[in-house]
Queue: 4 jobs
Job 1
Amino acid sequence: MRHGKKINHLGRTASHRRSMLANMACSLIEHKRINTTTAKAKALKQFVEPLITKAKAENNSTIEKSTHNRRVAFSYLRSKEAVAHLFSEVSEKVADRQGGYTRIIKLGNRLGDSADMALIELVDFNETYNATEKKVKSTRRSRRSKSSETKEAAPTADETSPEVDIIEESTDEETK
């Protein structure tokens, strides 16, 4: 029975699993999103979110700055470039977020072996789902009101200076 066994072994030995998660975490930090299986994405989420929290705590002004969190992150990631990127760019983006730094989006099944695939990404780096940027919705207007507004807004010949000539565009009906 499986009572109390919370870790997904992913069909690998402990050393292989740690290396695979470290490589996937480095790729996630570098590229901001990766495609993988759903089981690996869930395991990666548990692996990388505490590291992002440590990086965020390092940049917090209330906590004394030390190299301890960097050394802990390096012991998990084993890549100087990924640690530097994590503590500089990623930690600045997630400074105001309380948790939930990653998002898993299910993609469907892989063609070869029908494995459940997922996209795992860092939440604050996706411009599509970013809530801070709001699109301005344009109102829909009829053609008559649009053309009448442009005629009213256009200056008359008396208002313009003598150097500027007003050229009116001909419509398709007038040319026929």
Job 2
Amino acid sequence: MRTTFPLLITFFIGLFMVGEFFIPHWRYQLVKVQLLEWGYILAAATFLLGLINLIQVNLPKVLNREQDWFHKAVMLVSLFATMIIGFVGGIDRLDDNQPYRWLFDYIFVPLNATMFALLAFYIASAAFRAFRARNIDATVLLAAACFVMIARVPIGEMLGAGFSNGLSSILGDWTQTWLPEAFVSQFMNWIMDVPNIAARRAIFIGAALGAIATGLRIILGIERSHLGAD
């Protein structure tokens, strides 16, 4: 019963939410809105569970002086300090010159920017491994990426304009009709607007199909990982 009852709830609620796309009756939509509000409440409760789990996992490691315990201690102290300052600030905590707003603007935002700045090195490393010309597809990807990166900076436009002007001075001005000075930026825009968007749409379609398949597996009870099963 501990497994069957949650599966039944998931099945009926999931089936009901799918029906909103096929049943436009206003009473049906009213019940759907009510269910969504209950879902928001449950989602908010998960933040409290996450907070409790964070403390349960990290506090024993700090007390036992396990590996990286100092970083975990800093995290817990920052967590409780932010919570206390936020509760004391009340509804005015987001106003200017408030301690909570100061913590957010001058501690959280710079740390967040630093973290994303460090991710640039991992992205560069992943790009170096992915752009190796091992086959035709990788070679095309490498050439397109190099061209887009060069075209994004002013020196790329300067090189393109210089090449176009040099070619027109040798072969005549008629070359400007099929190779204008701004051909680098124009070709770069074509790469971003046509093949890049086509590939992104294909990825989004595949992700949507995967989400639909996962949703059906959960509704039908085939996928039970959310219940703690193997």
Job 3
Amino acid sequence: MSLLVGQDAPIFEGTALIGGDATTLSIDSAFKNISLNDYKGKWVVFFFYPLDFTFVCPTEIAEFGKHYQEFQDLNCEVIACSTDSQFSHLAWRNSERQLVKLPYPMLADFTRTNATKYNILKESTGYALRGLYIIDPDGKLQYTVIHPEAVGRNSKEVLRVLKALQTGKLTPCEWEPGENTL
């Protein structure tokens, strides 16, 4: 089954490591159950990455963190997800300097349920590919993209696409916010 723009987004759910300073979180306060249903009325950038403790993943996860306030200003939540456990997420955030103060949640998908729903699970490895989904406030998929494991995403491009979607108008190739729409 493929996911197409305009369809209802699959409901992701599970235990997430909350955002904030990982060094101050305890096991009792670090985790929260979340679901796509928690974000009704908001835009959501939901993205999968292959694995914790890897090389490309922290660079893109950190970049989304650097631009997190810009997403928030657009009524958008950012949520990362991998097939690692929430405990692995916490250990990684505590050991990876650029992720210690990550402001958004990291969803654990240890059972691979969410990766399967989003049709992004690479069966041969057991982890998710780099899939990214923009979900509108009504829960509809508005954008999907899949990158190979070796290529990180560009958070500024995701912001540009989100802003284009939010115009509700036709935007030409290489459109930038503030430019005329069609």
Job 4
Amino acid sequence: MRSLLVICILIGLAAVAAPKLVASYLHQPTTANVVSETASAEEEGQAAPPSGARQVEIKAAGDGHFYVNAEINSGHGIRLMVDTGASVVALRASDAAAAGIRPLKSDFSEPVQTANGTTMAAEATIDRISVEDIEIHHVRALVLSDDQLSLSLLGASFLKGLQRYQVADGRMLFEN
């Protein structure tokens, strides 16, 4: 009898507390909403970038990815896909060669995992990458053979050189 009384009390407490918990949960903004609200506030001029900061806005392509035309080293333009999951900039060998980066066959000694499986890459340092008005120097990169990478990738070794980057509402914002 005593255990039945305890169970009834617990059920009563849960019945009283549950609506408050559900209501508070439903009224908490999600992270996505916070990012969207921040982006909307910036669009409305409520939060201007710091004085002298440069911004580049990239709209998502039809496939949902973000693509940029970047100048690498000598000013050669290369189309890259922004890949926040890639730890470094990954260049196709042909794009690297066009930018003056020509590793030797013996330099392809770094094992990397790609969508096509494990392959070997060559480490390199890019002197300069410019995306519109934003320029980052001394960027770590990997060079892969063209058959292992369908498009060069702008990875975290570039992104970490920015003051910030943000993704919201089908747009990516670089700021420096």
